[in-house]
Amino acid sequence: MVVSLVNLGRLDYTKALALQEQVCALRKQERIGDVLLLLEHPPVLTLGRNADRQHVVASDELLARRGISLFETNRGGDVTYHGPGQLVGYPILDLRGFAPPLGPVNYLRKLEEVLIRACADYGVLTERIPGRAGVWTMPGGSVAEKKIAALGVHVSRGVTSHGFALNVTTDLHDFDLIVPCGIRDRGVTSMEAEVDTQMRPAPTLDQMANSVARHFGRVFGRQVVWIEAIEDLIAAPLPDCNTAVTV
Q1: Which has the minimum average pLDDT: 119-128, 168-177, 229-238?
Q2: Which domain CATH number covers 129?
Q3: Reduced to 3 DSSP states, what percent helix, strand and coil does the chain have, rounded to the nearest 5?
Q4: Buried b / exposed e across 94-120, counting CB within 10 Å, b at 16+?
Q5: Distance CA 189, CA 191 (A)
Q6: Per DSSP, what are the bridge partners of residue 227?
Q7: Domain total for the chain?
Q8: How many DSSP H helices and E strands does the chain contain?
Q9: More confidently predicted of 236 and 207
Q10: Is 181 one of the annotated active-site residues of the chain?
């Protein structure tokens, strides 16, 4: 079984959301196979189905001055930030095609495992925390665990959308705009902040994309095939940027 991977580079959130909807529709119609979209967004805030609007601590005026849009989405989870230096992954998989079929919880655990292994490639040890989706650094002494990757997914008729966001070289000050994932008692971090640069340089986005792709294939038991352009997969240009709902 094959997963087609497309690295879209930096892509506006509205266009990425419209593209997800198009690819999901094709997957549900069984006109294409499973797909993994990897990309990076300009600065944007998104609210999941369970989000508390009060977890956006920046004023509307500040967001407007900085050109940061706010979107409601149908993914799980609370509020999160996407921006430059963050590797975003949108797997569009039919969970019924796995043996045995995957449920949403097991699917989330597998996504976490992919990211845990990818972080370990660069000496960053991470873990799961029961009751808190995502990937967290290991605590040590007086240093509490920090969130390095957020997860939020949607499943419709067995087909997944949305996915994960791994902080690679993200400007962590941008998370001051929100209470990340609604969790007030823990901070966020990035690969750049956690890698021991005396041992090795911090990874680039492309290097982390390669690592995530490799482990995605291993964890999900699929062959990952890189596709040069999205048009090679769906035989259509990128959709117009008009489908997201701005709050």
Answers
A1: 229-238
A2: 3.30.930.10
A3: 30, 30, 35
A4: bbebbeeebeeeebbebbbbbbbbbbe
A5: 7
A6: 6
A7: 1
A8: 6, 12
A9: 207
A10: yes
Three-class SS of residue 127?
Answer: strand
| Structural domain for 27, as ranges | 2-246
Sign of the C-alpha dihedral, residues 202, 208, 212, 218?
negative
239 within 8 A of 25, measured Cβ to Cβ: no
Q: What is the pLDDT of residue 244?
A: 30
Residue with tokens 């048009």: 231
% pLDDT > 70, the chain: 92
Tokens of 226: 């890189």
pLDDT digits (tens, 9 = 90+) for 172-203: 999 888 877 666 667 899 999 999 888 888 89
- The pTM score is 0.91
Residue 33 makes CB contacts below 8 A (sequence gap 6+) with 1, 2, 3, 4, 27
Cα(200)–Cα(11) distance, integer angstroms: 29
Residue 170, CA atoms < 13 Å, CB-side half-sphere: 29
